[in-house]
Automatic annotation (TrEMBL):
Protein name: Alpha-L-glutamate ligase-related protein ATP-grasp domain-containing protein
Alpha-L-glutamate ligase-related protein ATP-grasp domain: residues covered: 91-338
Cited Pfam families: ATPgrasp_ST
Record-linked SUPFAM superfamilies: Glutathione synthetase ATP-binding domain-like
Organism: Dorea ammoniilytica
InterPro entries membership: RimK-rel_E_lig_ATP-grasp
Amino acid sequence: MEKKKNILLDNYLVKNLRAYPVLKKKFMHYIEGTKELPEGFTKRKLFHDYLKVRRNNPEKRVSQSEYMIFGFYGLSPEEQKRYLTDIEATRLMRPYNNESEKYLKDKLSFLKNFTQFVSRGWLYVPEASYEEFDAFVHKYHVVALKPQYSSWGIGFIRLTEAEFDAKEDKEEFYQKMIKGRYLAEEFVESHESLAVFHPSSLNTLRVITFRNEDRFEVFGCGLRVGNNGLHVDNAHGGGIFCEIDPKTGIINTDGIDECANTYIAHPMTGMQFRGVQIPFWEEICALCKEASQALPCLRVVGWDVAILSDGRLELIEGNHSPGMNIVQAPAKHGVHDKFESMLLDYYGDPEQYI
């Protein structure tokens, strides 16, 4: 017998009512990280305005972070539509970037396919013996451990050889790394020009590029630095990000974090963001151009580039569905129309790729 639909449960309004307590809990937890609320707003007023923004822009699936860092609480519906949310960006890119996902999302596949841009030592733990893993840790003294398919710094572990040797059961730790499908990488350090912002983390450059055969363009870019002594630089891990002028390599905004706190200077080191020239900028853009030509399927990619302590450039990873927060939130300018237009200009109708 065919199950009858429950009209009430399928009703859009009812679905939103059921989601209300979950959204409220998440929003209130998130807003605890915001040090100063917008003028004229309480937490409760912000939450209800956030719900209104979500109702007015159902296609955007605006997250609480996007609502705050884009300043949606002070924008008209027309102005809000100029911004590109992560959900929208993914939907727009998906037809064009489907083929590249397997090479970029999988960290092991990335390391194998972009060897000419990677100088740091690495080891895929599930394919290594305990003796090989032990030797790797002691060879590099400090290693970065990352799950094969992780993002946003989730699961990241910084391990020193002293910490490894002090473990009661080193074999058990090794088995956990196998079960979690971890990669072990040489822990590399930032060039002094970037380390000065936050020495504990590898501070990286996000460079978003378009490529179609010989056509190439840097769409936007930014600097990501760690905070609070943590070893990751991404915003989801508490980091700070700012925008870089793609033509000059000069930081042209103040910093901002995922909770919409803004920073003229890094709170731990006092190093100002705006006006700083990123060194080796022409070489960085050239590296990304060369990397974008490594595989025919690479179209829109968000490259994470490090300048190592000795001045060498290193690709940390490539992202097949890069978020656009770093090129929108710091300067408060939306890129929705520009991004959509460039996709059509570079690659044509998305239907041909489906």
